[in-house]
Amino acid sequence: MDRIGSDEIHSPIGAVCLRFQDELNQYMSYDIGGECLADEVFAQMLVSKGCEPLPKRSNIVWDPYTCKSHKCLIERKNNKGYCKDCFDLQGREKGRWIFDDGGLDFGIDQVLGTKRSDSTIHIGLDIDGGTGTFAARMKERNVTIITSTLDLDSSFSHFIASRGLTPIHLSISQRLQFFENTLDIVHSMEFIGN
């Protein structure tokens, strides 16, 4: 018997969930095809502990959010606050990251043009990617972007997935689940900073 636990091998992804088996069992106890339970707060609690449970279903449970439909998310575009207009894909999001504005916002083609001629950009990470527009623009250029989200008053991760993109739900203090030298590009719009 090993006294320090080195006789066990745990996968780095999801290994923390082993410490919260009761909570994870509670989270995963639902009837497949049954009524969707409002458990986003419980899922967020697991994420904050470092356990990222896989989504149980593809539909959105609207109970914890102010808006109860995609239509409501789009109609709040004139309200003040973070990302109130980012669900309106025909509004400001439509032209986002296409052009260099001369300031701190660079167009994607300008950024991709800075890479060395002998290098490629295949995969990246967008930290706090809103509704995934940066990932959508990069997908148009054959680059896969994983978009990290925090579902703060809107189901950003479900919305991103509905666009055919790849969300990852992370807490602020969590270690990223990528091996060294995996990412070719990392983007953050507002989350890192003041």
Automatic annotation (TrEMBL):
InterPro entries: Prob_Methyltransferase. It comes from the Eukaryota. This is Uncharacterized protein.
